[in-house]
TrEMBL record:
GO terms for cellular component: nucleus. One of its GO terms (molecular function) is histone H3R2 methyltransferase activity. Its EC number is 2.1.1.319. The keyword tRNA-binding does not apply. Pfam families: PrmA (PF06325), PRMT_C (PF22528). InterPro entries: Arg_MeTrfase, PRMT_dom, SAM-dependent_MTases_sf. GO terms for biological process: DNA repair; methylation; negative regulation of DNA-templated transcription. Keywords: Chromatin regulator, DNA damage, DNA repair, Methylation, Methyltransferase, Nucleus, Repressor, S-adenosyl-L-methionine, Transcription, Transcription regulation, Transferase. This is Protein arginine N-methyltransferase 6. It is found in: Nucleus.
Amino acid sequence: MSHVVKKRKLDKTRQDRLYFDSYTDVTIHEEMIADHVRTNTYRMAILRNSESIRGKVVLDVGAGTGVLSIFCVQAGAKKVYAVEACSIAEQAVKIVKQNNMEDNIEVIRGTVETVDLPEQVEVIVSEWMGYALLHESMLNSVLYARDKWLKPGGIILPNKAELYIAPISDPVVEDRLHFWYTVKDQYGVDMSCMSDFATRCIMNSDITVNSVTVEDVLSHPARFAELDLHSVTVEELRSVKGKFRCESFGSAAVNAFCVYFTVTFPCPDKPLVLSTSPFNPETHWKQAVLYLDAPVNVVQDTVVTGEVSMYPSEESARHICIHADYTIGEQKRQSKTFSIPDWSSEAQP
């Protein structure tokens, strides 16, 4: 009997249930609100847009605990519809009440695609970003809300997203791969033949969410995609792609790429940027790390070029895949497809 389990494609209802269930525990909300870069940037962006929010009707897509809705009332919003699909909405109701904002904030339990609002809105606010920006594909819901509920000339916070890539050298991987050559000196047993096996296991096709240190980044990051939330379509999100070109800072072994994002909030004085770059303070998104099949040595000014394509997984539309075609120096072009391990292995029939 074969023990190979074929990945099942999850129907959309099950995908959504698993996704929303992941937000029912306190831990994820604690992590997000404790992320000072994230929460304070949203707070500052909302308060700086008080002229556009004061006296207006706001839609908070995926409101969670309702913290962004409360920021909007603090900025002068007349009414906020806080739409939240998972049971954390019950806690949002309590938080709204505790802050004496029941007259201004209406928490609505359901997905933005299924709820019915009594009026159009002038502002949409949402913290929709997932790992590598598009994991969880919540942006689709924001675009649905934009097309159905946002008045012409209304604002979206944030209104722009950008994706970046850079070659990196992960020293932990180098140490782990080298480990098998040290066993003989320690214990008198030659295990160097484990190196190939270790390489396949460690430098696999998973998108690894990790904090990348500045010292390990080998070039200036290259922007490969930009999304304008006022105009991008759901169809365009089915394949977000772009080319990149980097030049290495010095001699090192490239064993991975890191992908990160920024989102931009329009503000009256100047735009406010929330960045998940390794060159900026850490956020809970960290960076998405894509390990190559084998390290490649580079020297000063070695050119690294390629194209990145991001698209939903076939098994679960909420999970992102990243395909990279890349050339490092004089090496021939390589290709590799990466994904975040999905829910299908956990799903019960």
